[in-house]
């Protein structure tokens, strides 16, 4: 029974002999009232509507909000301050009112309304309460109590004599006489009970008390046969005209059946929790479209890594937000919507760990629809088995698991068809491409064994019917019997990869490696009856892997013996090996050198170039060769020749990098000494050549005043040789400057067509033995080093003259595109073989051809460096015997 039900409240207050009103606990506004309360303020209704009457009464009676808060906080009744109400009806004297504020609670014992009983005390003692009036009121109250659908009694006086009892209350103790008897005489089994104490408290303090699902030791008929009975009841004091408690109203209902149902429900729920916790699977029940977790077992909590109070009653995606982008939420809703059963095998499930890492797991799971009390689908039963270890093992063994995969397919077909044909099962069992055996009972008797497992064991079918220990005595001191015994006892499958066994074959022990599964098989009663053994012989794969590991160890030993610094790295760049020479040079152990030492040892000026070159080498699948400086333990940078070579698989993919780093500090120092010597000698030679050039020019002028043609020719040829010698010396000087970083490019804006015109006349006089043809536009402005470009042109045209016969043509052309210019020098000379084209611009390189033409191989090298310093490129094209074409391009901006 709910005392907050409005129809019940209205029925009670309408028949109550005292003025009473019901107010809302939050707003302190009158919601219900009886006629006697209305008569306190108005004799007539004045044809008011119900709303108008409520507004009128709320304006007349203002509840004491402080006292309302006190009643709500204590959930007890309290008297308010007395006040005088001068009604002036029929010349009656003024009335003194003592209000009693009593709480009305809901099923959760929360005070939601208050009943205010108006006790009237006339200023002049009235003597109209005669015996007839009392009897009339009592009869009236009796009729009221009979009409109320609840068990109600009225106790009178301090002995709690039953004054009134309705039929519902009498039915609680059938066969007993209550009216006129004291409470404890009528119900002696309640003596000393909490109910007795509560009655005394209500009577002495004038407070109301409420109790829900309270245990009352009350028997039905026989006092000596007490039983567990539960009641929800409220005790309300009856106040007389003097404001004193002279009785107690009892409103009660028996809830024994409801409490028993609740206990049974809790027991059932507890049993269900114990059952699902015993299951080997992870189990969770999820309800409604917002996927609320209703029930979950310990296995599932362990898998989710959650506590029960973090999960139960909360939405699935709030518990595991990292699963929002995975298919599970959509599948759950589809099962509730369509009623289909979803069964998924080896599904990946990704969890984000607190440290940000991803935990990859795999499960087999089944979604089955659940219906609610209304028969509609509103939930899903989720049963799952985590198989992460098995999937990861399968991944690890992928390279040699094809045979086992075929066996699993065969076994799947075998299991699906087992019920159809036992003979067919035996046939498939025998023909399966992996070793399969069936062991019966605790003694592990060999019931079935296919040819593969007999071959692995080194036995014949004579072992069938023997125990495994009898058939294979050599495994006595090996772990397999213990593994099988544990599977039989626990019912937990056993998986192992690359497990070693020593088995007797033809009188000799052989070392064999397996991937093995021991799968328990239960009988109809759920007890373990058999163990299915499935094994794959992977001895060859294991031995092959061991040979590879041995080869790797041999490689590392050889790498430590060579004088070069050797390293290995994965395609990602992670270094997996440094040989002994590297560790000695760095003065570090492997971990420190790998983690941060390698790049710390590189010269800062060369890191970016090295990384760019290595990326290009990786893209082209070619080695990267570079000269680099590495810092030794003394802090000194030492020059090395560094070669990073990619190792490719059969598909052309890089599987690893092999690095070879050789100390070339001595070669660098020798080269520096050579350059210093060349620079010194070149400077020393230029001084006498300058004097010789001056004397020859004077002699040529004097010879031109004579008719001696021989002298003229001799002096001109001498000057030409001096000029050639000077150009060679300048070339050596430029090489020296370039290698020391002192070759300077001085860019200015000029018309390159003017430069061609200036050198055109000089070339026609200087190279009169050849026909030079120039082609260019009238004006092209470039920003470059004018003297250096002239040097490049002199070199290209000089080479064209040198390597082509007299009387042949040499073409010099300039073309302009949108943002570049191209200068081309083409000859009709001997040409260059294709294998020499890529090396033409290397320092000191000279083409080895049948020619006696001299040179040092520095002209084209200097030209290439000058063009590259301008951000351009230079190249050569040739067909041997048909001439050559040299071209270079420069950017306009």
Overview of the molecule:
- Its EC number is 2.7.13.3.
- It is a multi-pass membrane protein.
- One of its GO terms (molecular function) is ATP binding.
- The chain is an alpha+beta fold and 893 residues long.
- Helix content is 40%, strand content 28%.
- The strands form seven sheets. Strands 1, 2, 3, 4, 5 and 6 form a six-stranded antiparallel sheet that branches. Strands 8-7-11-10-9 form a five-stranded antiparallel sheet.
- The two termini are 96 Å apart.
- It is elongated and about 175 Å long.
Summarize the structure.
With 893 residues, the chain is α+β, with helices and mostly antiparallel strands.
List the helices and strands and how they pair.
Elements: H1 6-14, E1 20-24, E2 30-33, H2 35-41, H3 50-60, H4 65-74, E3 78-79, E4 83-85, E5 95-105, E6 111-122, H5 131-147, E7 151-156, E8 161-165, H6 167-170, H7 183-186, H8 194-205, E9 209-216, E10 229-239, E11 245-254, H9 256-278, E12 282-287, E13 292-296, H10 298-304, H11 316-319, H12 328-338, E14 342-352, E15 358-371, E16 377-386, H13 388-396, H14 402-417, H15 422-431, E17 435-440, E18 445-449, H16 451-457, H17 468-471, H18 480-490, E19 494-505, E20 508-522, E21 528-537, H19 539-561, E22 565-569, E23 575-578, H20 580-586, H21 590-601, H22 604-620, E24 624-631, E25 637-648, E26 654-663, H23 665-704, H24 709-739, E27 748-751, H25 752-766, E28 771-775, E29 781-784, H26 786-802, E30 809-816, E31 820-826, H27 834-837, H28 859-869, E32 873-878, E33 884-891
Parallel strand pairs: 28-30
Antiparallel strand pairs: 1-2, 1-6, 3-5, 4-5, 5-6, 7-8, 7-11, 9-10, 10-11, 12-13, 12-16, 14-15, 15-16, 17-18, 17-21, 19-20, 20-21, 22-23, 22-26, 24-25, 25-26, 27-29, 30-31, 31-33, 32-33
């Amino acid at each position: 029974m709910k005392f907050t039900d409005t129809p019940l409240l209205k029925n009670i207050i309408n028949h109550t002999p005292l003025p009473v009103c019901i107010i809302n606990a939050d707003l302190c506004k009158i919601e219900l009232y009886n006629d006697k309360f209305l008569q306190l303020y108005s004799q007539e209704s004045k044809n008011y509507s119900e709303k108008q009457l409520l507004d009128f009464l709320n304006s007349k009676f203002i509840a004491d909000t402080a006292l309302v808060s006190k009643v709500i906080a204590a959930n007890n009744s309290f008297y308010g301050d007395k006040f005088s109400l001068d009604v002036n009806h029929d010349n009656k004297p003024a009335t003194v009112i003592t209000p009693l504020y009593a709480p009305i609670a809901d099923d959760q014992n929360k005070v939601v309304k208050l009943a205010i009983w108006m006790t009237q005390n006339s200023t002049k003692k009235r003597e109209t309460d005669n015996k007839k009036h009392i009897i009339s009121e009592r009869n009236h109250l009796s009729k009221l109590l009979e009409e109320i659908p609840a068990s109600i009694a009225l106790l009178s006086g301090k002995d709690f004599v039953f004054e009134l009892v309705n039929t519902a209350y009498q039915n609680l103790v059938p066969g007993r006489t209550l009216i006129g008897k004291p409470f404890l005489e009528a119900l002696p089994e309640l003596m000393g009970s909490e109910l007795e104490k509560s009655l005394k408290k209500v009577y002495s303090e004038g407070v109301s008390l409420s109790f829900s699902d309270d245990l009352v030791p009350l028997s039905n008929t026989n006092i000596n046969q007490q039983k567990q009975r539960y009641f929800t009841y409220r005790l309300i004091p009856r106040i007389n005209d003097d404001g004193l408690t002279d009785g107690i109203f009892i409103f009660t209902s028996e809830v024994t059946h409801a409490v028993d149902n609740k206990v049974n429900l809790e027991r059932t729920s507890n049993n269900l929790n114990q059952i699902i916790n015993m299951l080997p699977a992870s189990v969770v029940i999820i309800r409604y479209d917002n996927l609320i977790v209703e029930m979950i077992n310990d296995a599932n909590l362990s898998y989710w890594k959650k506590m029960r109070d973090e999960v139960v009653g909360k939405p699935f995606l709030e518990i595991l937000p990292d699963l929002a982008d995975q298919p599970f939420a959509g599948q759950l809703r589809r099962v509730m919507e369509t009623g289909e059963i979803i069964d998924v095998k080896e599904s990946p499930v990704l969890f984000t760990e607190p440290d940000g890492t991803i935990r990859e797991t795999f499960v087999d799971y089944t979604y089955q629809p659940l219906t609610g009390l209304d028969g509609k689908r509103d939930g899903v039963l989720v049963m799952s088995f985590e198989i992460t270890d098995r999937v990861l093992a399968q991944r690890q063994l992928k390279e040699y698991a094809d045979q086992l995969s075929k066996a699993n397919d065969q076994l799947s077909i075998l299991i699906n068809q087992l019920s159809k044909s036992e003979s067919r099962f035996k046939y498939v069992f025998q023909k399966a491409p992996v070793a399969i055996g069936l062991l019966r009972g605790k003694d592990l008797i060999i019931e079935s064994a296919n040819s593969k497992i007999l071959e692995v064991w080194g036995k014949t079918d004579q072992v069938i019917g023997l125990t495994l220990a009898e058939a294979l005595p050599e495994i006595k001191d090996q772990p397999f019997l213990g593994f099988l015994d544990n599977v039989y006892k626990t019912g937990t499958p056993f998986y192992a990869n690359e497990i070693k066994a020593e088995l007797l074959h033809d009188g000799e022990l052989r070392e064999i490696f397996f991937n093995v599964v021991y799968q328990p098989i239960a009988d109809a009663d759920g007890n373990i009856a058999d163990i299915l053994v499935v094994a794959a012989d992977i001895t060859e794969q294991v031995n092959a892997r061991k040979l590879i590991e041995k080869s790797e160890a041999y490689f590392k030993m050889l790498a430590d013996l060579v004088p070069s610094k050797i390293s290995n790295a994965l395609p990602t760049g992670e270094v997996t090996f440094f040989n002994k020479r590297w560790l000695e040079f760095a003065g570090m152990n492997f971990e420190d050198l790998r983690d941060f030492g390698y790049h710390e040892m590189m010269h800062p000026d060369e890191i970016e170039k090295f990384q760019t070159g290595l990326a290009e080498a990786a893209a082209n699948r070619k080695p990267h060769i570079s000269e680099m400086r590495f810092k030794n333990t003394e802090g000194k940078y030492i020059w090395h020749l560094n070669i990073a070579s990619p190792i490719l698989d059969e598909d052309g993919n890089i599987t690893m990098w092999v690095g070879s780093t050789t100390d070339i500090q001595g070669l660098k120092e020798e080269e520096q000494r050579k350059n210093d010597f060349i620079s010194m000698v070149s400077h020393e030679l230029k001084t006498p050549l300058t004097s010789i050039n001056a004397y020859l020019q004077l002699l040529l002028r004097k010879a031109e005043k004579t008719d001696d043609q021989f002298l003229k020719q001799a002096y001109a040829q001498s000057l030409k040789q001096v000029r050639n010698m000077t150009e060679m010396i300048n070339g050596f000087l430029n090489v020296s400057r370039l290698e020391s970083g002192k070759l300077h490019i001085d860019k200015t804006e000029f018309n390159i067509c003017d430069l061609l015109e200036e050198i055109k006349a000089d070339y026609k006089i200087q190279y009169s033995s050849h026909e030079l043809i120039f082609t260019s536009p009238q004006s092209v402005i470039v920003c470059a080093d004018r003297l250096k470009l002239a040097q490049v042109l002199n070199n290209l045209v000089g080479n064209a003259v040198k390597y082509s016969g007299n009387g042949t043509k040499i073409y010099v052309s300039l073309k302009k595109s949108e943002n570049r210019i191209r200068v081309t020098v083409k000859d009709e000379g001997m040409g260059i073989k294709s294998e020499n084209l890529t090396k033409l611009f290397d320092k000191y390189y000279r083409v080895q051809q049948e020619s006696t033409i001299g040179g040092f191989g520095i002209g084209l090298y200097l030209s290439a460096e000058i063009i590259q310093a301008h951000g351009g490129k230079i190249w050569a094209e040739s067909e041997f015997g048909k001439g050559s074409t040299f071209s270079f391009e420069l950017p306009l901006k």
